[in-house]
Amino acid sequence: MKRTGSLVALLGITAFSTIGAAGSDASSRPRGVGPEFAKYYKDPSTFTCISNPYIKVPFSAVNDDYCDCPDGSDEPGTSACAPVSHFSPSDIRDDGINRTPALPGFYCVNKGHKPSYISFQRVNDGVCDYEVCCDGSDEWTKVGGVKCENKCKEIGKAWRKNEEQRQKSLTAAVKKRKELVATAGRLRKEIEDRIGDLEVEIKASELKVENLKAELESVRARDRGKVVKGKKQGKVNVLAGLAKERVEELREALVEVRRQRDENSARLSELETTLSKFKEEYNPNFNDEGVKRAVRAWEDYAARGETTSGSDAARNRDLDAISKPDSENSGINWEQWENEEDAETEISLVYKVAAYFPDSLISYIEDKVLQARTFLMSNGILADNDVESASGESKAVTEARNAVSAEESSLNKIRSQLKDHKSDLDKDYGRDSVFRSMKGSCISRDSGEYTYELCWLEKTKQKSKKGGSHTSMGTFSGFTTVTVDEQNSSGGIVPREKIALEYTNGQSCWNGPSRSTKVVLECGENDEILKVTEDEKCVYSMYVTTPAACEVASNGNNDRDGRKDEL
Ligand code: MAN
C-alpha cells in the first residue's frame, strides 16, 4: 500500500493518474508494463496480483514504490519489487504463495528503436542504460539529478544500419550454405555413381577370376598329362644339341684316326717283316757297306722293342666302345637333354654336367656353384626358383596361377573401395550433409604462442610459433550440441544451444588426458576461427563461424542458428 510522504509513491499516483483508465497503447498502460501484460492492469479500481490472484490491492497501490504482490506484479515501473526478481520457481514455498517474478522487467517503449525490458534493479539507479533503454525511461525519477535524454532516434538509426549489414551478411551466408549443400549433393551423387561403376567392375572381375581359375585348371591338367613332343628351345636344349653335334664330330674323327692308324700299322708290320727277312737272307760275305749299314740299323730298331704287338688290345677295346653311337653305349642320353623343361636353369645343367666329371672335382664345383648362386640371388640378379622347382610346377602353370592371384588382388581392392564408399554414404555429415563438401578443407588462426588449425571433419592441430611439429588436438569423432551463455539484445544472458564438432584422441598430454577439441559453430558468412580457449589442461574449445551453421527460419527470414531477435 502507499506510504504517505513518499515522493515515489506520489509519482506512482502521478503515473497512475497519467495512465488513467487502462488502454492498449503505451500511454494507457501503467509505467513499465509491456503490451502483453496490459490485460492485468485494466481494472481501474482493483489490482489482482498476477501469480497470486487471491491477493488484491487497490489500483492506487500499482507503482506506489511499495511491493505488495509476492510476485512483484504491482510494481512494474519501480524497483520496489526488485528483490522478488531474484526468486526462482523453486521459491514457491509450502505456504502456497508464488514468489516467482510475474514480469520480465521494466518495459522501455524505445520509440524510434525497438522496445525492450530492463531488469528492475536498474530502474531509477541513477545510470542511463541506453543499450537497453534508449529512451531513458528507466530513470524517470531523475534520481540524483540524472536526466537521461531520449537517444532512440540515433541509436535506432545506427542499429538499423548495423542490422541491415547483418541481414546482408546472413543472406550471403545462407546462399553459401545452399551452395555447400548443393555441392554435398553432387559429391554424394558422384559416390553413388562410383558405387554403381564399382559393382559392375566387381562383376566383370569376378567373372575374370572364374575364367582364369578355369584356365589354370586346364593348364595344370595339360601339364600333368603332357607327352613331350619335339625339341624344346630352352638354353639347355640348345646346348645339348650343340654338344651332341660336337661329340659326333669327335667320334667320327676318332674313327678316322683309328682307321689311318690301323692302315699305317699294317704297312709298318709289312715293312718290318720284309726287313726281318732281309736280315736273315742277306750274304754277309758280300762286302757291301750299304747293305751292312741297313742290317745294323734294323738290328738297332728291333733291339728298342718298338715293334707293334698285341699290348694295345685293351685300349683298342675302349676306343671301340667310345666310337660306337651313344645309343649303343652307356654314354649321354641326348633324348632326355634335348627335351629338358625350360624351367631347368644353367645351374642345374652344371650339376648334371658335373656328374660326368671325376669325383674329386664334383664337390669342389658344387661348392663354387652354390656360392655363385647365393651371391646372384641375394643381389637380385638371379630369381629364386626354389619354390617352383620344389613344387615341380611348369612355367605355364606359374603364369596362370599368377594371373589368378593378380586378378583376385585387384578384385579385393575394388571390393574394399566399394565398402569404403558405401560406409561413407552412411556417415553423418550434419544437417543436409552440408559438411560433406567441406571435409578436409582447413582454416587456421594465430592465438597466443600457437597457430591453431581446424580441418573440417578431420583434425584439429596446434603448432608453436617458435617452430617444431604439429600437436594433434584430436580427430573428428562426431557431432554434438553445446549450450553457450550469450547476451541477448536486451543485454540479458541467455543460454543458446549450438552445433559443435567433437575432435578426440589427440596427442597425449603430459600428466593429462589425450588432447581433445570442441568446435562450437556459429552462423557466419565465412569460415573463421574467432577464438580458441584451453578450458582445462589439453581440453580445448574453438569458436568458429561458418555458413554451414546457418539455417533459414520457417518464415523465410535469415536467422542465426534458427534464433529470433526479440523485436
Ligand atoms: C603444450 C600445449 C598446451 C598444453 C601443454 C600441456 O604446451 O599443448 O596447450 O597445455 O602442452 O603440457
Automatic annotation (TrEMBL):
Q: Where is the MRH domain?
A: 440-552
Q: Which residues form the signal peptide?
A: 1-22
Q: Does the keyword Signal apply?
A: yes
A cellular-component GO term for this protein: glucosidase II complex
What InterPro entries does UniProt report for this protein, alphabetically?
Answer: Gtb1-like, Man6P_isomerase_rcpt-bd_dom_sf, MRH_dom, PRKCSH, PRKCSH_N
* Superkingdom of origin: Eukaryota
Write the record's keywords in alphabetical order, separated by commas: Coiled coil, Disulfide bond, Endoplasmic reticulum, Signal
Q: Which GO terms describe its biological process?
A: N-glycan processing
SUPFAM superfamilies according to UniProt:
Mannose 6-phosphate receptor domain
Which parts of the chain are coiled coil? 188-281
Q: What is this protein called?
A: Glucosidase 2 subunit beta
Specify the species: Helicocarpus griseus UAMH5409
What does UniProt list as this organism's lineage?
A: Eukaryota, Fungi, Dikarya, Ascomycota, Pezizomycotina
